[in-house]
Design a protein that fits this description.
Helix 2 crosses helix 5 and helix 5 crosses helix 11. It contains 11 helices and no strands. The protein is about 85% helix and about 0% strand. The chain has one domain.
Amino acid sequence: MHIKHTLSLFRKAGTAWVDDFAPSMGAAISYYTVFSLAPLLVIVIAIAGAVFGREAVTGQIVAQLSGLIGNDGAQVVQGLVASASDTDKGLIAGLISVVVLLIGATTVFAELQSALDRIWHVPVEEKPQGIRALLQTRMVSFGLILGVAFLLMVSLSVSAGIAAFGSWAGGMLPGSELLLQALNMTISVCIATLLFAMIYKLMPSTTIAWRDVWIGAGVTAVLFEVGKLLIGLYLGKSGVTESFAAAGSLVVLLAWVYYAAQVFLLGAEFTKVYADEHGSLAGAKAMAKTEQTAAEGKPVEVRTSGPAAPGGALAAKESVAPTRQKAIDIEIEATQKAIVTQLASLAVMAVLDAAMSKYMNRVDRRFRLLGQPVKSATGTVARQHQRGRSDTLLARWRRRSSPGWGKRS
């Protein structure tokens, strides 16, 4: 694409961003994100912590949040995560907390799906309905959470490798710090691109080709990295924390999440415009325009890439090819979503099974600790009572069997 076409895409994406009421959708996403952030991080830390250790993963997340929203905001998020991960409960309360944790963590993804459906102009009749559709949406959302955990593990591994390389080559290569920072930022952009591509691809209720989402995901990742610096400067210089006193940390968190939501929605609009202009939807759009021109009675110009065949067979073949390709894409998309749903179902069952085993072991341990002394004491008392009763009966039998028993003195 030329620079002129790129600027045209951004202009159309900005117009669509305003027409689809993206600022209002971003406010809703920010609201749900604040309530879903703690359970989402609890699940991500639990999964990634199984590999790298809970303390290491928590420290990495807090360090990243400190660079984004400041130390106060990071401490607020850390407190929310600590409160949400408190598992010192009974069996029933623990199971309920696990269910609430899963629902809370997937709520923000459901709101993202609603926003993406509006951006892609998905008709109401094509949206999934009923309890099954709701469960399927939650399963896909949980699958994305697993993807976030996997990307976090990749990021931790890469960061550890870069740090080790920096400590080894620090004294050998001059200017290695700038090189490592650039490498770290490049890797962050790649990981963010993969994450945004997964969301843009899997969350909408319509079929989207992979080749359409990569461009938009890359643009969103770049805007996200640039925006981190800008929003950090704004929050550091504006004095928002001091203006709102005790609620300053929460306001900073909301402001940053709102900005991230706007970048995400702008990237989704760019993806939609790119798909319409240069992606998989360009052929369907051109065909619809041709049909509209023919319906208005205007001459239709058919362009072919080769010599015209008798009876217009070449043009008919070219018009049928996009339809077959679209059907194949739909089948592939359905298969991919089914696989993601099955993997998410297995993951949910594994989490529930682990939670059940954990609480059953805790309950069994408590009953074992409480049951052994009680059982032992009860058995001792019972044996003493039985021995005393036997001695009493033996004494009575001896008195009755004595010669003078029954005679009054």
